[in-house]
Amino acid sequence: MLTRRMDETPPLDTLVVAGGDVDALLKQARSTADQVTTVVEGVMRVLGRSGDMKRPVSERVTLVEVLELTGPFETFAATVQAAARRLEAEGVSGLARVQFYATPGSSEVGAIITFAAPSQIMDHIRMISDWPEFKALLGVVKPVDVQLYGRLGEEALAWVRKMNVVSKTFERHVAGFVRSP
Asked: Which of these, 65, 76, 102, 103, could form a disulfide with 111 (CB 3.0-4.6 Å)?
């Protein structure tokens, strides 16, 4: 408990901690603040509002992909919707955006995948590699072209280049921003 003399308003450095040590009180306050921060970050992750989204735009990595349909569009649509639902529910927190686009009658579809935390790309790849939704997706599409925007780690870059479809890489972010609705 903090106390002060009632006859004057003392400077902050003359506050006295009744029955205790100021350093111990500050240490306890910091510990409590750290615990609150941990709880808030956990709640944000559960709500899908990860702190990763607050990273600077310059740290994000976006993959823009063109995929050839190797099966019926309806099968692709059902498969990619299932995969996207699972990613939204269970994917790595640094996966900020997954969107697929198509033009009716076309044999190609497009994908935009953005990571707010590029360090999690390999975690993402390892996680989804065994998911039946992604095995099914790979059964109905084939990568044709990939463009990379942002800097990938060496392991992730080597993995993406194994597909032999990377046409452009733009590592250096020059300018930009992202607005949340």
From this structure: 65
Does residue 84 sit in the same domain as residue 135? yes
Q: Cα–Cα distance between 132 and 43 in angstroms, integer? A: 28
Which helix (H) or strand (E) covers residue 159, if one does? Answer: helix 154-161
Which residue intervals of 50-104 are DSSP H helices?
73-90
pLDDT of residue 134: 94
Q: What tokens were used for 138?
A: 């790979």
Q: Whole-model pTM above 0.70?
A: no
* Cα separation, 73 vs 67, whole angstroms: 12
95 and 131 co-located in one domain? yes
Q: Considering the domain boundaries, does residue 147 fall inside one?
A: yes
The dihedrals phi and psi of 43, each to the nearest 5 degrees, come to -65, -40
pLDDT value for 114: 95
